[in-house]
Write a structure and sequence with these properties.
The chain has six helices and no strands. The chain is mostly helical. The longest helix has 31 residues, at 32-62. It has helices at 3-6, 17-26, 32-62, 85-101, 106-134, 138-145. Helix content is 63%, strand content 0%.
Length: 156
């Protein structure tokens, strides 16, 4: 049976999407606990890497008072351990706001995460295309503006 037939959309209140996929892959009597534990560790690793990279990105975008960046220079201030502490505070506040907006429901958080990943890649591509265009590098601008794979989109 195809996976889409057994678990379409957001699962009911007594289950999670990972549990439904585990039951479909391993069967109800299978090793679903190991599947769910592995999936949980993967999600924890993704969240951890996000909390490590996020404040560093804010620091990089902040610039310095001499060479201002996209964000205010205060986000680039570091302590003696080279941690951009104001960037960590901003990132923590953003994460708390998202958790409150999703009402702590993990399925809603997964949707927020999926949209955030898509938007971040899109913004990155637009920024690189804009930078390449500003540097008069037309070929790089096209590489960043158009994906290298064929698209079924009717707008192309």
């Amino acid at each position: 049976m195809p996976l889409g037939d057994c678990c379409p959309g957001i699962p009911g209140t007594d289950s999670t999407q990972i549990a439904d996929i585990a039951h479909a892959a391993a069967g109800p009597a299978g090793s679903t606990t190991a599947f769910q534990l592995t999936s949980s560790l993967l999600l924890l690793a993704a969240a951890s890497s996000s909390f490590q990279a996020g404040p560093g990105l804010l620091k990089a975008l902040s610039g310095t008072p001499e060479q201002p960046g996209v964000l205010p220079p205060v986000l680039g201030r570091v302590n003696r351990h080279h941690t951009p502490y104001w960037s960590v505070v901003v990132y923590l506040a953003a994460a708390a706001l998202i958790i409150v907006a999703a009402a702590g429901q993990e399925q809603e958080l997964v949707l927020f995460y999926a949209v955030a990943v898509f938007v971040s890649f899109l913004v990155g591509l637009v920024a690189m295309a804009r930078f390449a265009r500003g540097e008069d590098k037309t070929a790089l601008s096209w590489v960043n503006a158009w994906p290298p794979w064929p698209s079924p989109s009717p707008w192309r």
